[in-house]
């Protein structure tokens, strides 16, 4: 029997946000349908939703040229969100929209950046056959001043500073509570290892994306300083749609287990950590003193999770094996910047996946969330695919409070927040929306909507300066595998309970 409202402490409340449509501000930088959106946002507010999340596209804002920022359309959008009484999570989206699962619109990165790529295509992530991915700049050029005298790190930093200056009223009023810093394709800290626009199809293992001249040179330098100048980047890891056993690299007893393979995978995954560290440091400087939380998104690569080589995770840049935790070092890095770890695929269950993909979304979610909690990082999450059914919602609820509500205080384990993907006509369709409203109520532990986040333990204090850089060996210590925390078999807050 569910507890009565009055007997459940507010500390069990998990706020729920809803992602706005990708093209709510168009590629021409126009906020097209304020009245239509306002009507939808009021419906969300009336359903008890705490806030919304929106992509703030680099390709729209700095479209006209270096440092030529145009924020007006987003200011109008933020005004509407504020009028509707919702909180706002903003994503610094330094990637292209289009070419990924669920991308309904196309918003490229700025043309003046793409123009530089015409004469120097190595600024983009590149696979072994030389195909470039124009969704996001390669982390190999992070500190190369190739962009009218600026490096990508400087470009992202300037953009975030401009956002702060132009949105200072919304930051000061408490409208903006979260700034998620985009760190790769789809805004996720990863390599573009499974691009649909290059022919990848689920459950292909994907491909390593480090064959641009900058990453190649960095690898050669690292290998030489490790005493192995003869080592090259992998040439035996297969193609996008292979299965692990059909490749020399990922097969049983494959290259990934050799000294050379381990060296490569450590280098490849460390490049991502370094990339995240540098950009988060700039984000921290840009938003220093603001009452916001920084966040990053890590992708839920659940296919081949139950195969020994975890091939799809490895090509993505997550060096995760049964005897090596590829996610806890990311969580440990976030402690330096007081940032939230946002993880995807909360809605998925193993039983819903085809057996040939050796998929393990439930175990993956448990591993990543447990790693975050162990490092004392706040963890948040979202669903990977739109779901309108009780089964999907119940799985999210289970992950939000893995051991259920606690009638005498805060739950033992609780996610910081969940963002539902995505606002659409389908979601607001009457029968779908009825189920969604129940889901919102259960996320709130059957309590009424709570306007003041402090009441459920979200104390937004001014952002402190990042702590000193964490030595690499301290990050690597976090690769030691630990068993995940125990999860209940089902949620005590079922949507259909």
Shape call: globular
The radius of gyration over CA amounts to 22 Å
**Main pleated-sheet profile:** 8 strands, parallel, barrel
* The CATH superfamily title: Glycosidases
Mean of pLDDT? 97
The count of domains is 1
Distance between the termini: 9 Å
Kindly state the number of beta strands. 10
Describe the structure.
The protein is α/β, with parallel strands linked by helices and 497 residues long. It has one domain (5-102, 145-194, 276-477): Alpha-Beta Barrel (TIM Barrel), CATH 3.20.20.80. It is 33% helix and 10% strand. The protein has helices at residues 34-46, 58-61, 72-83, 111-119, 152-166, 168-172, 213-225, 259-286, 311-316, 328-337, 361-374, 390-400, 425-428, 430-443, 472-477; strands at residues 16-19, 51-57, 87-93, 124-126, 132-137, 176-181, 293-298, 339-343, 379-382, 417-420. The strands form two sheets. The protein has an eight-stranded parallel beta barrel with strand order 1-2-3-6-7-8-9-10, surrounded by four helices. It has a two-stranded antiparallel sheet with strand order 4-5. The longest helix has 28 residues, at 259-286. The protein is globular. The chain starts with 15 loop residues before the first strand and ends in a 20-residue tail after the last helix. The relative contact order is 0.14. The active site is at 188 (proton donor), 382 (proton acceptor). Substrate binds at residues 55, 95, 103, 297, 302, 344, 383-384, 422. It catalyses: Hydrolysis of (1->4)-alpha-D-glucosidic linkages in polysaccharides so as to remove successive maltose units from the non-reducing ends of the chains. Belongs to the glycosyl hydrolase 14 family. This is Beta-amylase.
């Amino acid at each position: 029997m569910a507890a009565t409202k009055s007997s459940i402490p507010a500390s069990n409340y998990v706020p729920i946000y809803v992602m706005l449509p990708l093209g709510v501000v168009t590629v021409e930088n126009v906020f097209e349908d304020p009245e239509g959106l306002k009507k939808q946002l009021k419906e969300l507010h009336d359903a008890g939703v705490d806030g919304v999340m929106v992509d703030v596209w680099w390709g729209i804002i700095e479209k006209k040229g270096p440092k030529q920022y145009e924020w007006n359309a987003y200011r109008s959008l933020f005004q509407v969100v504020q009028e509707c009484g919702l909180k706002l999570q903003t994503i610094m989206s330094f990637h292209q929209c289009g070419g990924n699962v669920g991308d309904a619109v196309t918003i490229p990165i700025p043309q003046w950046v793409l123009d530089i790529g015409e004469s120097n295509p190595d600024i983009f992530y590149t696979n072994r056959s030389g195909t470039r991915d124009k969704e996001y700049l390669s982390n190999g050029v992070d500190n190369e001043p190739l962009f009218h005298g600026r490096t990508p790190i400087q470009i992202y930093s300037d953009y975030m500073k401009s956002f702060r200056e132009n949105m200072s009223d919304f930051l000061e009023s408490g409208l903006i509570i979260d700034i998620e810093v985009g760190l790769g394709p789809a805004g996720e800290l990863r390599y573009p290892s499974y691009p649909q626009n290059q022919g990848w199809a689920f459950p292909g293992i994907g491909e390593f994306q480090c064959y641009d001249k900058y990453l190649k040179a960095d690898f050669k330098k690292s290998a030489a300083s490790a005493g192995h100048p003869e080592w090259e980047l992998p040439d035996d890891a297969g193609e996008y749609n292979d299965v692990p056993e059909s490749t020399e690299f990922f097969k049983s007893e494959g290259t990934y287990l050799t000294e050379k393979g381990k060296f490569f995978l450590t280098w490849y995954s460390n490049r991502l950590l370094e990339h995240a560290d540098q950009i988060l440091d700039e984000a921290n400087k840009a938003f220093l003193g603001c009452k916001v939380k920084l966040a990053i998104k890590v992708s839920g690569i659940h296919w081949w999770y139950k195969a020994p080589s975890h091939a799809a995770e490895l090509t993505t840049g997550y060096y995760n094996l049964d005897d090596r935790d590829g996610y806890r070092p990311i969580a440990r890095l976030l402690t330096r910047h007081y940032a939230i770890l946002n993880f995807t695929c909360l809605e998925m269950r193993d039983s819903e996946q085809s057996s040939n993909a050796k998929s393990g979304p439930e175990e993956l979610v448990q591993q990543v969330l447990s790693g975050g909690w162990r490092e004392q990082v706040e963890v948040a999450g979202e669903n990977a695919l739109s779901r309108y059914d009780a089964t999907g919602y119940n799985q999210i609820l289970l992950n939000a409070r893995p051991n259920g509500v606690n009638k005498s205080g805060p739950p033992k384990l609780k996610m910081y927040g969940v963002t539902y993907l995505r606002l659409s006509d389908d979601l607001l369709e009457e029968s779908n929306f009825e189920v969604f409203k129940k889901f919102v109520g259960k996320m709130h532990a059957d309590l009424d909507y709570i306007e003041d986040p402090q009441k459920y333990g979200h104390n937004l204090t001014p952002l402190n300066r990042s702590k000193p850089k964490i030595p690499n060996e301290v990050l690597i210590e976090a690769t030691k595998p630990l068993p995940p925390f125990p999860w209940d078999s089902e949620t005590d807050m079922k949507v259909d309970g």
